[in-house]
Amino acid sequence: MKQLKETAEKIKSMEIRGAGRIARAAAAELRDYAGRFPARDIADFNKKMKYAAELLISTRPTAVSLPNAVRAVMRYVGENPEEAKASVRKLADEFITNSENAVRKIGEIGARRVRDGDTIMTHCNSSAAVSIMAEAHASGKKINVIATESRPRMQGHLTIKQLDSLGIETSLIVDSAVRYFMKDIDLVIMGADAVTANGSVINKIGTSQVALAAHEARKNVIIAAETYKFSPRTLLGELVEIEERDSDEVISKEKLREFSKVIVKNPAFDITPREYIDLICTEVGAIPPEMAYIIIKEYLGWGLGEINSNWKS
Ligand code: RUB
Predict the structure, then answer these.
(1) What is the pTM of this model?
(2) Is residue 105 within 6 Å of ligand 1 at its C-beta?
(3) I need a labelling partner for 23 at 20 to 30 A (CA). Which of 59, 96, 255, 289 fits?
(4) How far apart are CA 35 and CA 30, in angstroms?
(5) Is 210 in the same domain as 233?
(6) Any residues with CB less than 8 A from the CB of 12 and at least 6 apart, and which?
(7) Into how many domains does the chain fold?
(8) Distance from the alpha carbon of residue 253 to the mean position of ligand 1, in angstroms
C-alpha cells in the first residue's frame, strides 16, 4: 500500500509527468501492487485492485492515457488470485511495451512529414513529439527547434535538454513570444494528453494559442499522440476535465497574501479545436483529426454499441 500511495503521489506532484509516462507508471504500479498484496480469495483481490485503480486514476484528471492504461490492465481474468495476478502482469507488461513501441513508431511516421532544413516549434515536453524530431534528425535531416518555456512548470527546459543531448540546434523562447517567432518556422509539433471523439486535442496550457498563431500564419500543426490518448467517453458527450493546479505554481502563497482581491487561475491544459490541427500522428498512422472516432472504435475497441458496458472507475 505504501508504494502504491507513493506512486500516486509522484504522479500528482508531477515527479512522474507527461501523459505517456503517467500511463506506463500506472500500469507498472498495478502490476507490482497485485504482486505484493496477499489476497484471501478472488473477491478480495478484485476489491483491492479496484481501490488501486481508482486511486491512480484520481491523481491527474486530464490525461486520458491514465484511465485507458488502467482499463487495459483491469481487463485481467482469473478464477483465483494467482491466475489473476499472472493476467495483470501480462496485461501491464503488454501495455508498457506497446506504449514504448508506439512512441518509437510515431517518431518514424511523423519524421516523414519533416523536411530537411525545417524549423519546428514545440510546446511543453512531449516524448511523442520529441520522438518525431529525434527520428528526423537521426535520418540525416537538418532541423532547428524553437521550444517554449511552458510556464509555470517550465517543461520546456526538459525539452531543450533532450534535444541538446541529441545534437539538435534549439532556441528557448518565452511563451508570449510564440506569435513573434511564428514567421520563422515551418511547422509545429506538439503532444497530447487527450484527443476527443471529434478530433479536438487537449494538451499543456498554451497549446491552443500556439495552434491559433500557426493557423493564422498558415503553418502546419502536427499532434503526436498514441492511440491510448484518445478518449472513448467523449463519445458519450462527456467533457475532458481540465486540471486546475495549485496557485503556488504561479505565485508564492506569501506574496499572494499581500492582496485582498486577487485569486490565481492555473489551468494546466487547454483545448485546441480540430480546425487548427492538420494531422494527428499515431502509431497506426497519421490521420486528419476528423478520423478520431475510427481510432476509438478500431484500436481501443469502443464502438458506440459497447461503450456503456466497459469498465469505468
Ligand atoms: C505534459 C504535456 C505533454 C503531453 C504529452 O503535461 O502536456 O505535451 O502529456 O506528453 P504535464 P507525452 O507536464 O503537466 O504532465 O508525449 O510525453 O505523453
Answers:
(1) 0.95
(2) no
(3) 289
(4) 9
(5) yes
(6) 59, 60
(7) 2
(8) 26
